[in-house]
Amino acid sequence: MLAETLVSLHAHLLKLNALLQVQLVLIDNNSPDRTPDVMAEWQMRFPVCVHRRETQQGLSYARNAGLDAATGDVVVFLDDDVELHDDWLPTLLHPFTDTKVAAVGGKVLAFGSNELPDWLPREYGYLVSVFDPFDSPRETDKVMGANFALRSSIVRQVGTFDPALGRKGNKLLGGEEVDLFNRIRRVGGIVWYTPHSVVFHKIANKLRKEYIVDYAYWLGVSEAHLEKRLGQRLKYAFKLLRSWCDPWLINPVRRPLASTPAAQMRSVIRERYAAGYRNMHAEID
């Protein structure tokens, strides 16, 4: 899928006549497969390309390595399993004409015929990496990591991604983007959403209940760590108490009321989120 993403990116930049204006940064985070060979092959096809191996395991380490290698005023992040819409890059970069805009993110839709299953509540689409919150551009709290960009200057001001957060192998930790966006907004930077910049995410391997409930667990772990670290004492204490009450008081009431497949899945997601929240100290390194 990485090769397919690079094919899409190369064709996109070629169409824009922008190959010479873009630096491509490829980060190999201890891939056990042919990823280094694919990167080496595509490194020769881009006029300006950096290919690095980041040995510290974790998405935040990999992204920070990319930030360190990037030389442009704006750094654009892509996942390695996406295809690009025709207007993806110009519409993603356009909001930066406003100097107050520090980060911009776009829409992330399912690739091909992959639709969200009826049993997955639509508010939990982000658990399978689909992000389609609004139909018009606007300031927002957060955008999705599969399709977003940052000013380099804001990273120098607020710092990079927290290595304690973000995926690490089979640990589906998250929250690293939200943490960064929170820091950006605290110094007056604007996080902007533009629905006109679209990538199509290959999520077929994520449309499984096992994956979704596992992700819900790790989301609970991530948010507990983030809220405690930010000193949100009342919020953290309330949610921790609720997470301990969930197996004994809340879930026994919630589950019998879940009469549809979507409602049943919503109940399981909340159950696993609560389990992750109360287990944070056992899971975070």
From TrEMBL:
User: What's the source species for this entry?
Assistant: Roseateles asaccharophilus
Q: Which UniProt keywords apply?
A: Glycosyltransferase, Transferase
Query: What Gene3D superfamilies does the record tag this protein with?
Result: Spore Coat Polysaccharide Biosynthesis Protein SpsA, Chain A
Record domain Glycosyltransferase 2-like: where:
2-127
Q: Which family does it belong to?
A: Belongs to the glycosyltransferase 2 family.
**Alphabetized InterPro entries for the sequence:** Glyco_trans_2-like, Nucleotide-diphossugar_trans
Q: What is this protein called?
A: Glycosyltransferase involved in cell wall biosynthesis
* A Pfam family of this chain: Glycos_transf_2
